[in-house]
């Protein structure tokens, strides 16, 4: 069965485009990763809660959204085509045997290229005022590492036009905010580099700690916070 290159949510009332690269843990029936199915419920396969927050935020703002439709264990839509982790053979200590000795070009053509083409075509037709991508992160890596105290991180590369006011506003709400944490958008910003910065569209990535958005109450809370933030950002653009 074929997989649509992206899930598209229509929205007409807000000049914001939402993106969610790691929205799905789906593995097409004709792909065998040769892993324990339980791994598909972990962060290595999907940004837990990110799709739910994206859909809830899109609904609150009547904003459009584009979401990925396959697990990042199949192919990581938030990586450049030549990135060594595009089709992971090991992720956070877990081996992915089914990704060894596969036709990486076939997966690129089948999933990665159509997904990004969908975003490109949408932007060309409707150019948004700004773009936000939604992700989630683990309280700490499975294979060790320190605790990550941030509740939300704002990631950006060269364009900080909206990132700075977002960080400041979130901080005023009493939240623990990471400035390019838990990792830096200057190192990993593939989707926004390509679709936002390359088109001079203000943008940043949102990273929410996934233990905060694992249930409906958490999703609703964070969608509300982000909706309020989005309205503040729209005001920033009008200055």
Q: How many separate domains make up the residues?
A: 1
Residues in β-strands, percent = 15-25%
Share of residues in helices:
25-40%
CATH architecture grouping: 3-Layer(aba) Sandwich
First CA to last CA: what distance?
A: 48 Å
* Average of the residue pLDDT scores: 95
| Biggest sheet record | 7 strands, mixed
Evaluate the radius of gyration: 17 Å
Strand order of the largest sheet: 1-3-2-6-9-7-8
Give the ordered list of helices and strands.
EEHEEEHEEHEHEH
What name does CATH use for the topology? Aminopeptidase
Shape summary:
globular
What structural class do the secondary elements suggest? alpha/beta
Give a count of the beta strands, DSSP E runs of length 2 or more.
9
Q: Can you identify the CATH superfamily?
A: Zn-dependent exopeptidases
């Amino acid at each position: 069965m074929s997989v649509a290159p992206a899930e598209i949510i229509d929205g007409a009332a807000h000049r914001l485009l939402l993106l969610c690269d790691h929205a799905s843990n789906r593995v097409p029936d004709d792909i065998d990763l040769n892993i324990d199915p339980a791994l598909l419920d972990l962060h290595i396969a999907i940004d837990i809660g990110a799709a739910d927050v994206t859909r809830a935020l899109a609904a609150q703002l009547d904003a459009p959204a584009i979401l990925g439709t396959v697990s990042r264990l199949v192919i990581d839509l938030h990586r450049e085509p030549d990135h060594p982790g595009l089709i992971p053979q090991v992720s956070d200590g877990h081996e992915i045997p089914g990704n060894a000795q596969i036709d990486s070009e076939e997966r690129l053509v089948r999933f990665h290229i159509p997904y990004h083409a969908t975003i490109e075509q949408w932007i060309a037709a409707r150019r948004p005022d700004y773009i936000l991508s939604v992700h989630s992160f683990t309280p700490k890596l499975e294979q060790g590492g320190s605790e990550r105290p941030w509740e939300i991180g704002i990631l950006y590369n060269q364009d900080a036009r909206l990132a700075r006011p977002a960080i400041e506003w979130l901080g005023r709400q009493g939240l623990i905010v990471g400035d390019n944490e838990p990792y830096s958008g200057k190192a990993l910003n593939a989707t926004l580099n390509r679709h936002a910065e390359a088109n001079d569209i203000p943008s940043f990535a949102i990273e929410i700690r996934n233990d905060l958005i694992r249930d409906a109450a958490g999703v609703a809370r964070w969608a509300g916070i982000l909706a309020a933030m989005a309205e503040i950002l729209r005001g920033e653009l009008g200055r």
